[in-house]
Records
---
Amino acid sequence: MEDSAAVAGLLWDRWLPANVRALVSGVLPDGEADGRRLAVWLAGVHDIGKATPAFACQVDQLADVMRGLGLEMRTRRQFGPDRRLAPHGLAGQVLLGQWLEERHGWTGRQSGQFAVVVGGHHGVPPDHGQLKALQDRPHLLRTPGPSRGVWQRVQEELLEACAEEFGVAGRLGVWRAVKLPQPVQVLLSALVIVADWIASNPDLFPYFPQAAGRTSAERVAAAWRGLDLPEPWRAQLPPEDVGELFGGRFGLPPGAVVRPVQEAAVRLARGMSAPGLLVIEAPMGEGKTEAALAAAEVFAARSGAGGVFFALPTMATGNAMFPRLLDWLKRIPAGGGTRISALLAHSKAALNEAYADLMRGSAQRITAVAVDEEERVWRPREDRRAAPAEVVAHAWLRGRKKAMLSSFVVGTVDQLLFAGLKSRHLALRHLAVAGKVVVIDEAHAYDTYMSAYLDRVLSWLGAYRVPVVVLSATLPAGRRRQMAEAYAGAEGGAAGEGFDVVGRSDAYPLLTAVAPGGTAVVESPRAAARGAEVRLERLDDDFGVLAGRLAVELAGGGCALVVRNTVRRVLETARVLRERFGEDAVTVAHSCFIDVDRAANDAALLSRFGPPDKSQGRPAGPHIVVASQVAEQSLDVDFDLLVSDLCPVDLLLQRMGRLHRHTRGTGQAQRPARLRAARCLVTGVDWTGQVPLPVRGSVAVYGAHGLLRSAAVLLEHLDGRPVRLPQDISPLVQAAYGDGPVGPAGWAEAMGQALRRHEEHRKDQAERAGVFRLDAVGRPGRALIGWVAAGAGDADDTRTGRAQVRDSRESLEVVVVQRRPDGSLATVDWIAPGKAGLELPMDRPPSPRAARTAASCGLRLPSQFSSAEVMDRAIAALEELYVPAWQVKESHWLAGQLILALDADCQTRLAGFRLRYSPLDGLEVTCA
């Protein structure tokens, strides 16, 4: 109890960001002093539930000593299953509540909001049913008969001693009138959990007699030095001159001009009544990422936030962002000797070279605390891993429950959405985001299901007064308003006219700002990027027609991008085009490559088709890249011609951002003469009928409603009027996603049917999202009892965890290896020399180099393996390659991984499917 209290005090003084301390202290009469007292006291009394018969009976020798002192109790066996109804956290909540009510005159409502912190210190606040079950069995808390009074005196003496020792005895009368907001209860719960884990670490706090020669103060001081947690970032308000700010933070060359969007973002961040939500909508190439980081620095300085969390849609975009964050961190001012913790937060982070380099620079080794989990051997049917490969820059901040507590985090948006999922140790996730500025990138990419979680998270972030920056190419006006209202706590139609401007504006670029509890303001700076016109044309959905058209367009050379909506169409298209243009003239890019190949593919695309001053070896042509949606975002690539399957209009505009992205000579003179005007050929549709008929694969991905409305708003452009960028971006998106009628009268029946299916789908998504979604913030003083009741268990970056916050079925991820003719296993043979063909022995852990190389060959199997029946068959087959020797901590790269072995021809069979892998084409799946 003493150790936990002391650690809590140190965490408060040296580790908690200023904004978290301010939020807790702001509701208490004596401010910061009361905040610290309360945190220390709750950490000190958190284990009071161990002073009960139900807990003390577990060790017979110790229980006998207690019986000899008058503390009678049944044996563990005599208690039977009832003992499980009194876990010590729950028992502590009841005892603390009774003490506050009986000794200090508190009501049950007053005591519950404080005592629930004790009840939830193992990750799940108790619910009303658990409390009643324990209250109905008082013998679990105090043995009936003469011993009952002895038990009560011991419990009360401990509580009285803690109140005196930790300085709250004279404050309890004043605190009776306090109504703790639920966000404050959550933060206190998380702080107690962290303090408990640190104080429970025997490497930091050795058991007696090893520590017999030290005083309590010496024990705590030694432990804190050994832990050596980095202190939070303390941002200083950056220079008011935005040119100086951007030049210093992003290495701009002398004379570089800050873009209007960037300047407006910083100005709004400085000028808001309080740091809040800032939504930046701007076209590609406007420097939104830099604007977000600059605004984050201003927000952090104004709010006291101690770090930044940058949430991105995919692991690939997270990997690309992490080095940029590290470069920015090197440039922000910091005091001498200041250390900051950084993390790449996704399941394959340790394979990222920038992150691995960061880890290699840290030599500190501390045994991680896992007091609530038991060691067990992983089996292939389980989703969890016994020895995960994920590591963080600071050794104690390790693992799925603590890693997000690092000060600077780049990760997938799932890590943010998990904060809206009822799950174990949710309080830790809330503490992790409450102390940061949160940046959410590519916000237009989230469907109704994910948006339901995002809006709930935004409502909690607003309650925590967390500054948030949202980045998007463009948002539907209704979606923009929903996000602003959620953050401001104005959901459910109560926002009124204060948010009408957000829902009406079709200006572009557009910045929207709203302070917590406030109303929104909008600003529309001009776009800095040069304007462009793109001519759209219909193209019949026929592979032969496509090949013939590309032969005409590329006759004088040039590079074309063909974007398909499914991997199957990518591979079918590439096959036909290679027959026409040759193997070397066609490149394939999609998501079904092993990780190391996909990273190499992205690097090759950037090298060949990137900005003129950075790319090398751009083909003179003809050359065609056939890609899936991976080409839509985060790749700075530039093509002379675009062919795209019909898709929702905002995504089509994203794809157009890869067309004539950069200037190549005056008037694009360095492009082939035929391709100097930007053109996009729209296919994937039967254009011959009265109503366009998208191909089945596109309907399966996007739904007929979104595709038909996209086609409808594009009609005038398909008929000749160019799309003007960026002027037409917002009007097109608002029309496509609005409620008004679009398209010819002859389309009305088909569009009406599509709309009804779409609305049914959205309703189903919203209902399913609500099953495990966290409730809205409750009124101040309402205890967190049942806060995560009926939740989803643990939430983490696994196939099950991701499926909980995305509207997707579970997917299987495997590590791809090759089986040699003699039956032994090795790393795949086509990757870089020195990594290919490394032995993977099955009777012992592989060498670290071989294991890491194998782990870098991860592959997510496509949707054919996502149905329950097929997944069960696949896992049963993969179990045949379960290697016990790899399920140990010495083999952390491969422990807990599913292994898929290809033969020498890169083929295998799995669950009724034939799998063929090619370094050029990735994975192809056909029925066996």
---
Amino acid sequence: MIQKTTKRFGKKNAVLSTAVIFFSGIYFTQAQQTQPVKDSALDKQIEEVVLVGSRSGGRSKADSPVPVDVFNLKDIQLSLPQTNINQILNSIAPSFTSTIQTNADGSDHLDPAQLRGLGPDQALVLVNGKRRHTSALINVNGTPGRGSVGTDLNAIPAFALSKIEVLRDGASAQYGSDAIAGVMNLQLKKDTGKLTGQFNYGGYLTPAANDHTGNYDGQQYQVDLNYGNKIGKRGGFYNLTWSSQFRDPTRRAGTENAPIYNAYNAIEKRALENGVNLSSYFNNINNLKGTAGEQDFVNLIHQYAQGVSYFNSVSPTLQSSIQSANSITALQNVLKTSAFTTDQLNYLTDQELAYRGQTRKDFNMQVGQSKLNNHQLFANVEVPLNDDWKVYTFGGYSIRNGASGGFYRRPTQSRTFTGLYIDGYLPAIHTKIQDVSLAAGIKGKWNGWNVDLSNTFGQNGFDYTIENTGNTSLRFNSPSTFKAGGLQFLQNTINLDFSKQFDVFEGLNVAFGAEQRHENFRINPGEEASYTAYDVNGNPQTPTSVNPTDFFGAALAGGSQVFAGFREANRTNKSRNSYAAYADFEFNFTNWFLLDAAVRFEDYSDFGSTFNYKLASRIKLADNFNFRFAGSTGFRAPSIHQIYYNTTSTLFVSGELREVGTFSNDQPIAVGFGIPNLKQETSKSFSTGFTYKIPALNLNVTADAYFIRIDDRIVLTDQFTRFSNPTTEAQKLVNAEFTKAGVNAAQFFANSIDTETRGLDVVISHNLSKEAFKLTNDFAINLNNTRKVGDIHASDLLKNAGLETTYFGERSRVYLEDSVPKIKASLSNNFKWNDFNFYLRNTYYGKVYGADNVDANLDGILLPNEHQLISDKIITDLSIGYDINKNFNLTIGANNLFDIYPTKNLAVSSNNDQFVYSRSTSQFGQNGRYVFSKLTVSF
């Protein structure tokens, strides 16, 4: 790997040094006090009870044997510009990473999230302690988390939450599959007797707005309302939240610098201006050759070419060459792109743009955040039946409509039917994401046991409509909008849990229970025209049919451009069931020694069973100093999506667009390549650390080191292509499957590698209260490093064919190891003075590497593992709030105050200056400075 030699010590240590100096200053200031200040608010924070990671009813955060972060969203949301869960956590939790994606199909509308640098599907999400269902979408594009299925956190309104607990430790033995990196528990509000609301408005004020012409874009409006009240007199309640968000897109492309028009496009335009559509004279150009109509068509080319005044400025002989070409073949040779240099084509383009009153920016892609309208309703209800038993329910519904752009279809491309789109077009991907969840249960006491019986249902649907596009093979008969089908995932979980405290030693808690989970995954095909290629008669193409072409003889592609619909052959309706039993013991042998032990057995109907365990301990070495350590085994079942997902997508790979098929492992093409069926990932994790409180300084310090080994990790392979010289029946079968699917590349999910992750989390909290003010300071840093270890798990067939590095290639390695910062740190300061509140946060994002294989150091030598370094940055957020009265608070501020952007892409990775910044990494995004105002009301 090529790395720049410039030292980046300064930025990295700026955050650390600032923290050291700052907290040293705290000590110096407070050491002068003769009496330590008692701060009940701080005591409450340090002794805050956490529920995740324990089945004993909760314990203080400092006394937990595993690290848990607690974020009180009701307080945090007053100051932060971020309004959804992903972006809030990305800004305040160093171990959490999520950025808005661009030009990545469905991922543009659902931001993949990662914990401790592991995959989006290796962190489990709970709501009120119950397993949350995942998204229907599987990330198959070139983004961090490629090949994974995450949880759609943005389907839950952040305003519905009281706090988020993040357990930073493996917990599969306690909670089951997915909890390798950790667990996030979202606690819903229980507030009663008041109505609260927030009204947000903001946008990006940056010179890079509107494709680097400046001003303002990406405006966002959001309205949140929350109301709760009591039910009965036994502590029952209901709490309701409504949230609506309207987000405009941002545009961060540069200026399209590739040739846009060719000489034939110019002639075609002059003809159209005179009422002649040249495309109407043929459907397959080869069928016109040698017919009576050929000379008529040639004459039309001769006639309208004379209307292009600049042709001889492109080449002194161009006009005469056209006029002397007396056949279609001769004209093709004169007008074809390869007959011109790039400079000539760009000159021709500039002249044609001027003639049509256009600029190059008119042909830009929409690079940046997508357009979204998001509406959410959530409820949390509890009703006591008597002094011992209560029933409860919670859940919600959300609907999100998104729109994002694809790759511009230029007039020079055979993907563009210029008979309809004389200037080309920018196709748009519209998504409709619907999410519904409902949990209901009864809990109480029975013979001294705490009992909780619940059923949790969740469903996520992802439907595609492609607009401003065309099925090129249908030519004039193509619609511009296609229903492209969609994905649906359903999960239903039944839990029965028992726990009881025993008066043994200093306390013993015993918990056990069972779980049954049903999952269903569906692929619903789109309309026929969204995926079918048609012949010249409008019938689906066959091996012997005559198919449409452009003027140069290139085949016109079928299916809706930018996103071909799911085919009837992709239709999927698959289910599976799992059954689990667990036991959990918490021994307080003494008031200074705690030991947790958990075991879990789980059996899946589609791949087998797994047994996991966990041991964790906390030793109180002093009143304010705890040592803790944990070790566990874990697993992640292959998602049902990964097992059965299959489709065709248009992907941008190594500077070109490809039709790429994603195939399930039971299909003939997978068998032909020697791709085995999926099995579960297994893990071993160890962590050790300490917590330390200094009451005299109101200071709290935690530090935890961790190690995670994952075997048989599931990744999405790189792209396999046809065998150039097939010699075996299996290879011939593979090539036939390529033709049948209409793709030129194929990818699969596979247990291809083992990985190891090492890391360190440090959190330092401080609080100082005086009569006139209150100051809160928090510093946190996460260091993590994930590496592939051992050999690639390729079959002999793949090894013998030399395809081992396609099974797990260099791009996949970068997505796994280098696309997420290895260092992320934040220092936040909140100063409350009378009715004013000042919030300042600096976040350090470590360096990452782009996935493209490029000559990064520009020495003229391209190494196989050479990638562009995207340097580290510090992002500053600032907000100022004012309590107008007890009912109203107004906050204004900025995220990314100094308008910092990532390192610019090298030209070779920019797709003709469209991707000014990398879209294959996860740091802090590419939208620049966001300014906002927020009105919070409470009655």
